[in-house]
Write a structure and sequence with these properties.
With 249 residues, the chain is of the alpha/beta class. Helix content is 34%, strand content 16%. The strands form two sheets. A six-stranded mixed β-sheet has the order 3-1-2-4-5-6, covered by helices on one side. It has a two-stranded parallel ribbon with strand order 7-8.
């Protein structure tokens, strides 16, 4: 119970923390310039996390409350942000404060939910009607890999359920898939096929930015960048499936 100050796997207790907030010019073109707020803490333990100093250090950053978050939303909009982009770490553990902050905000705030989508069904339901653009990650198809590299049991079941729910309610969605070394056949190709069958109108960012950060070098099979051939195979499959990937990848 976050409201009582309990600390879960994510490390987030009774007070959210914001590591940084700024106008981000490097997000996908449809949402840039984006008023990006990085929350500390995460419900994943990705061994290759590029933001590990935020995601794995939940006590980093500034403690905030809902009124402060609301003022931050307003300030980012007034500075020219097209939206408020809630990310981390992971925004989901901070959901009660985010919803309250949105209620308090005095200006129109288009909400981008930039998330791993690994949340309870109830949490996903609370976001319906709140989010203007879904910006989810879809990392793994093979659950054993999700468990090994991110400590996320039942990953595919949970994430596909939430993606379907979000898309069916409001199909404005950009799905990010990070192509990992050695994981094109087991994860990338089946993920792209699932997207084509279940969320066909979504934009898809087939990402080539993986690099072996944080603890990735402890796992030799992912201790390298993906090859050009792996990226080409992923994008050729996206093209073959008719996915909308070119404008955001």
């Amino acid at each position: 119970d976050r409201l009582s100050g309990a600390v879960g796997v994510c490390g987030v207790g009774g007070t959210p923390r914001v590591a940084s907030a700024f106008i981000h010019m490097g997000e996908e073109p449809p949402i840039t310039p984006s008023g990006t707020i990085f929350f500390s803490g995460c419900n994943f333990r990705c061994v290759f996390c590029q933001n590990w100093d935020i995601s794995q250090e939940p006590d980093s950053g500034r403690p905030v409350d809902a009124p402060y978050l609301a003022s931050l939303f307003e300030a980012l909009r007034e500075r020219g942000a097209r939206n408020v982009n809630l990310v981390g770490g992971e925004p989901t553990p901070n959901l009660p404060w985010i919803l309250e902050a949105l209620r308090l905000t005095r200006v129109s705030v288009p909400v981008v939910w930039n998330s791993n989508m690994y949340m309870s069904e109830r949490a996903a339901e609370l976001l319906l009607g709140v989010v203007d653009l879904w910006l989810p990650d879809f990392k793994y198809w093979d659950d054993s890999h999700a468990l090994k590299y991110s400590s996320a049991p039942r990953y595919r079941e949970v994430v596909t359920r939430n993606l379907r729910m979000a898309y069916d309610y409001w199909p404005e969605m950009v799905i990010r898939h990070l192509v990992m070394p050695g994981h094109v056949d087991c994860c990338t190709l089946p993920i792209l096929r699932w997207i084509a069958e279940n969320t066909p109108g979504a934009l898809v960012n087939v990402m080539d930015q993986y690099r072996p950060e944080y603890r990735a070098r402890r796992f030799p099979e992912i201790a390298r960048r993906p090859t050009r051939e792996e990226i080409v195979r992923a994008r050729e499959e996206a093209e073959r499936l008719g996915l909308r990937w070119r404008s955001v990848s």
